[in-house]
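Figure caption, in words: inputs first, then the predicted bound structure.
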Amino acid sequence: MSQNSDSRPAYVGCVLGIAVLGVFMLFLLPLPLPPAFAQNNQPQGSNSASGLPSLVLDPGPRGSPVGAGRPIANLTADQLRFFNDGAARFVHSEAVANGLGPTFNADSCGACHSQPANGGTSPSANAFPNVGANPQVALATANGGKNSVPFFVTANGPVREARFKFLMNRNGSLDTTQPDGSVHDLFTIQGRNDAPAACVLPQEDFLAAATQHNLALRIPTPTFGGGFIEMIDDRTILANMLANQAIKSALGIRGKPNRNGNDATISRFGWKAQNKSLIMFSHEAYSVEIGETNQMFPQKRGFFPNPPPPQCIANSLPEDQTNYLPIGSDTVSVPSDDDAFATFMRFLDQPTPACSGPTCSPSIQNGNRLFTTTGCALCHTPSMTTGQSVFSVNPPGLSGVQANLFSDLLLHHMGVRLHDGISQGNAGPDEFRTAPLWGLGQRLFFLHDGRTSDLLQVIREHQSTGSEANGVINNFNQLKPAEKQDILNFLRSL
Ligand code: HEC
Ligand code: HEC
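Bound structure (heme C present):
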């Protein structure tokens, strides 16, 4: 069931005039090329269409205690053993002999999912030096690799991956009649010490793709609480979708589930809720991000639509598989890596906020209230409760747990500014899953392409032609500066 914290929110003024919206949008016009990928790390000095300076500032990521990365409470000794095994495999760097490449974005899950703890999201040298800089910069030339670092990957920026919207022909021309949508890995193993010497597979030309407006970027989503997201019943998601209908439609909020093509149940992982389960995401990521074939994806990837040259394939396939051990063996190495990754994420607890209820400062408490009354909570549902899980030997395990995810797990049209031109399942080119906000306090980069590190800018990006969030952002814009600050303080407490 849905649990909006206030029972009868008094929504502030609903819909602003189109004219006012138009004026506001003048300030949202994209910067010079390539606009969507400009890195904006600076808090903004103004918060309204008037451009007047204000004191509303994103307080920035909070430091310790790190409120994430622990296993859920009450795991059995066996579950904990498998969790720890999965955690170790999650950070293990793969070489070509293990299955890396021929195309790849990174060499371990942990390279991209490490902030603020193993399983999280993109690291940066900026805020938490112990986590380290963007690992993709060094990976370009690791092991003698000859890759250049694409323009949208920087030491202090987020880990990124790239999709092409349309088919790019070998000669560099664009075929806009042929959708692509697939991930084009940043690097290849060509020239690496551990690659077959005969492997010839040049990198993609990402600058050309950007110039042709054919590039769509994404940053990693955190995997904390993945086991809870997996165990929320479809009926809970649908009941929450139907709640507060009158106020949602007055504000222009719709929302719909994405569905899995194989069994038509509601999918919920990834920026477009395109993926069904942790097992599926693990296998997909092993193939797509690292290049390692597995039991769900046994063929090596090249650059869509071409398979890789046979000279670039070093191993028998699939490279990750169930280990069939002799009778009498009892070790934790039985599962495939992908099975182990999924176990690790399934038992990874939800992030712990800095405070809760009366232990929070008055500003954070007020921000929590305004988050609901402004209408943010109509999409960012504060919590949903998991169904019955078999992993509940010591209750509650994963059963009946209140997951404070701040998402309805539904897709929403987010307008021309966030539009990325990629369709996945039911999700169209401008539709995204309401991003879960748990753990937000320690996040460094925001929105699907990591275009900003500033929460005020994130809120602005919600508003543009065609966005279901426009009514709510109008409400936000009418708040006093101190109230806006309360919302930002609340967000950084999560
Ligand atoms: C090169 C960086 C990179 C690597 C390596 C990587 N991921 Fe990810 N991960 C991403 C990105 C980007 C997304 C968002 C993808 C999307 O929605 O298109 C993501 C999303 C996820 C999610 C979805 C979480 C949610 O709620 O949306 C899971 C689960 C996940 N990754 C697991 C893994 C596992 C397991 C591995 C190792 C096999 C891995 N990832 C390796 C970049 C990476
Ligand atoms: C119509 C539904 C909707 C409403 C209303 C809404 N959001 Fe969002 N929010 C989204 C979606 C969808 C995304 C992901 C968009 C993307 O990445 O392109 C998002 C992303 C975010 C993010 C970034 C999270 C991340 O992982 O990068 C923050 C922070 C956020 N919203 C805060 C708010 C606040 C604060 C409000 C109210 C002022 C609000 N949202 C209103 C749907 C909504």
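The pocket of heme C (ligand 2) is lined by residues 253, 374-376, 378-380, 412, 414, 418, 432, 434-435, 437, 440, 446-448, 455, 458-459, 462, 468-469, 472-473, 476, 487, 491 (CB under 6 Å).
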